[in-house]
Amino acid sequence: MNITQNGGPPRLGASQIRRLALVVAACLGCLLAAKAHARERVSFDAGGVPAGTIVVRTSERALYLVDGYGSALRYRVAVGRPGKQWFGWSQIDGKHVHPAWSPPDEVRRDNPRLPDVIPGGSPANPMGPRALTLSGGEYAIHGTNRPSSVGTFASYGCIRMYNADIVDLYERVRVGTRVVVVR
Question: What structural domains and CATH numbers belong to the chain?
């Protein structure tokens, strides 16, 4: 019986095997990196902050949801860049699914070509799939269309999260949840 190249399994040369190994390694690296960014339960000294409070530690670029049992859920976040950070307390005054976004005046000054409104769900919308608006200003805890910015000092004062993480946090908190932002 004659087996032709078209009738049998494809034969891979050494360069094709190396290329395939690189693709597999890259895929595994992406999966492992995604796991490294996932939220995690950590021990946390809340210093008298009540359970259910969100604490943002700007220097760590981390958001903690305090559980009241000496631990908290920790999420990696992006925070305000130098000169755009704020510290103090606020509370969640709104919960929004696929929010539309209107650039604040300060953002518009730096980016005059932005439209007046970017619809919710648009890939150009920097709010991501959920937003928790904060009382006392134009700030929110929200998702992002720039996941590579998470873990950096990147925003105009908002707290950016990975989209999967903001969806998770959104389900765990309510309007009225206290938010404390510290250095």
Answer: 40-182 (2.40.440.10)
